[in-house]
Amino acid sequence: MTTHKELTIGLFGFGIVGEGLYKILQQTPSLKATIKKVCIKNPDKKRDAPASLFTTDRNELLFDDEINVIVEVINESQAAYEIISTALKNGKQAVSSSKKMIAEHMHDLIALQEETGNSFLYEASACASIPVIRNLEEYYDNDLLHSIKAIVNGSTNFILTKIFEEQLEFKEALLLAQQLGFAEYDPSLDVEGYDAVNKWSILLTHAYGIIEKIENIIFTGIQNIQLSDALVAKEKKYSIKLVADAKKLQNGKVAAYVLPQFVRQEDQLAFVKNEYNGVVIETGFADKQFFYGKGAGSFPTASAVLADISALSYDYKYEYKKFYRKEPHELGNDFFLRVYVSFEDWKYVPREKFEWIEEWHSQEERKYLIGAISFQELKKNNWWQQNNTSLILSPDPIIEDVEIRKLKKKSLELAGII
Ligand SMILES: NC(=O)c1ccc[n+]([C@@H]2O[C@H](COP(=O)([O-])OP(=O)(O)OC[C@H]3O[C@@H](n4cnc5c(N)ncnc54)[C@H](OP(=O)(O)O)[C@@H]3O)[C@@H](O)[C@H]2O)c1
Fold first, then answer.
1. How far is the CA of 362 from the centre of ligand 1 (A)?
2. Which of 110, 248, 303, 370 is the most exposed place for a label (fewest CB within 10 A)?
3. 199 a catalytic residue
């Protein structure tokens, strides 16, 4: 029989997630876990908990022998890394929700767990309440994971939903998201895709064993999406989502990026609206599975932190099996993408770089084309992010190297060129 350890927690952060966790733990007496001390930044803030619980001295938690678990839910990534690494070195288990910190330091964090034998769990960092990391670790632990695509950022999904369903302009939708608390006062981390790519880099580690700095993953946010793009999508019976995508290519490498995408009505991701997140996993024999849930918020995020704390009570650890395997996967660049590009002037779009262009609309004030382009071109040059140009992937956008010639010939035939 598994024995569940008593856990004495040192909590860092008492904001949206930290206070949520404090309240949830009070309602979960069956989990033998108590918060001994909370470290925060500002000692003068009013808190809805006894004053004796709080300190601003991190060492009171990190060097307390009675505390065996450090839970870090703060919003400063350098301090978060110092806290987690010290905790692990001091013989404590650790839990975190700080995606930026985890994405930046994945290599070191794995090495620290190996060196110290202590466990570090971070389910809340990827899709908040959706248990995707542990499923990728435990259930999808073999070679059969064909693809994983996801909506991992609730703020941008909220904004896109409003642009789409209520025909709001981007700025109006952003303001509404801020008023409702779904977007930060400085929304650039969400809107420009940084939050999503940090989460994607964490999920790539657990899905495929790939550890890659975000600088090496192609990503953008929704900052250039126009109302006219939403109207084109609607005409084609698509919606627009910021999709984090990863797919195993025939050459064994993994195609991965975070880009806006046209999504068909029948696609599971079309069902994910407002501040929700969703993950679609496709495997060799099971076809598709769909995870759906809240990607942010106090209790939803704290519930994932609680699940990690609970897992520590029976010494659960991530094993990083896919990272440690003999020949780990790596990112691939040899593929093509079907894209829609809208722009203000033809001079901003290098038409000669496209493998083919199957639709072009140059009469409208906002011009657009649909065609195929190599991923390498998007990686090398950034014209597609400049001058208010908006790039959106077509549904099922990936075309493998081996297919491109066949398709190119067919598209030229259709266009009446050959
Ligand atoms: N909010 C969500 O829905 C959500 C979802 C998933 C993941 N996350 C991640 O979870 C983390 C926390 O998010 P949050 O929304 O709860 O943030 P938040 O509401 O801004 O709260 C941050 C907390 O951290 C404390 N803090 C900041 N720097 C500190 C330091 N150096 N030492 C000790 N305490 C410090 C702050 O102290 P004061 O109270 O004194 O200011 C505050 O209590 C972030 O990494 C975020 O990305 C959040």
1. 47
2. 110
3. yes
